[in-house]
Specification:
Length: about 80
């Protein structure tokens, strides 16, 4: 699930992606891979990760939240309009 939110520190709109990766080991690996890859990329056409939020303790950790820049449209809409 992805939601739009206001970053009170910067005043900018951000996208917050909620991930629940702990249901299966495959989901954990996929989430870790996504975070590692997006954290390393620095390119104008790739949305970078601003912050990764998680629970304070491992016992409480059920979800991970990835904060990114909010885009005006999604990839599906962009590709559909270019046809």
């Amino acid at each position: 699930m992805v939601v739009s939110a206001l970053d009170h520190a910067t005043g900018q709109r951000v996208a917050i992606k909620k991930i629940t990766p702990f249901e299966h080991q495959c989901f954990c690996q996929r989430t870790l891979r996504e975070i590692k890859i997006l954290s390393r990329f620095r390119h104008e056409n790739i949305i970078n990760i601003q912050e990764v939020m998680r629970a304070v303790s491992f016992d409480q950790m059920k979800d991970i939240y990835i904060v990114q820049c909010l885009m005006e449209c999604d990839l599906y809409k962009l590709l559909r309009h270019q046809r």
